[in-house]
Amino acid sequence: MLRVLVYNLQWAGDSDYTALAQELRTRAATGQQPDLALLQECFLNEGTEADPYPTFRTELADLYPYQWHGPLAGTRQLGSGLVILSQRPFVDEQFYIYSTGLPPDSLASKGLAWVELDVSPGCQHLGVLDTHLQAGKLSDFGGVVDPAQTRLEQTNELIAQLDQFQRGNGLALILGGDFNYFPVEGEATGFNGYRMLTQAWNGWLTDVENWCAVQPTRCAASGEPLVTDRSGMLKLFVGSTALVDVTPTALHKHPATEYGGLGDHASFEVDYRVTCR
């Protein structure tokens, strides 16, 4: 089994990293910790370019010895805010930065992190991706600029990168992150990045939340409905090839008050069965 957590920390800082590390250790004491954590918005609150991740490296080095952080700010004011914590070793790491963005998001190096995991001896490797797309709704920009258009452009880049990773490596993929796909958008504007992504990979990439619709007994939520008007923001997708079968077996939605209460919306934790063929 491979347990994957996707969690947006909402502009986390040093104390938040410590709180999350403590929460992961508490869960590990009963064997409930995720094997992989895909995190977003791991910035220091003051927006410094200094390395914001020493807490993870020191406090989680034994629990998650394999960690992808960054990149730190280069041509932009802030880094990517993306972190991948793993109990399984990395074989390769890559990062792609999106070419478009609206402020304040455009200050960050928003993009797509990709790691190749060795999940089992003798088994084909698994690709795991973490991303964070443009935030906001039309009303947040005074009705003048629609951030859904920027999400659409970033989704186009995401689809191209997925195609490149899949064709270049032939790996099964788990894709997670904060996509900011608001369910209410798209019908009037046509800027529906979610529909574009799922149609581009129709029959290969599965939205785990849609999987819950046909497997309701395997999906649960703590303290709130499984599907809400913000469920589309954090997502986990899965796609399998002929050599490795990656199948979701359970999903649990945690409200924003859980996992240290560091997010502004729920986190998702999904169990996958990984089978070598």
Give structural notes.
With 277 residues, this protein is an alpha+beta fold. It has helices spanning 14-28, 54-59, 147-169, 193-200, 208-214; strands at residues 2-8, 36-40, 66-69, 83-86, 90-97, 111-117, 126-132, 172-178, 205-207, 219-221, 234-239, 244-254, 267-276. The protein has a 7-stranded mixed beta sheet with strand order 3-4-2-1-13-12-10, covered by helices on one side. It starts with a strand and ends with a strand. The model is unreliable at 186-190 (pLDDT under 50).
How would you describe the shape?
Answer: globular
Report the major sheet. Answer: 7 strands, mixed
Structural class: alpha+beta
| Largest sheet, spatial ordering of strands | 3-4-2-1-13-12-10
Strand content: 25-35%
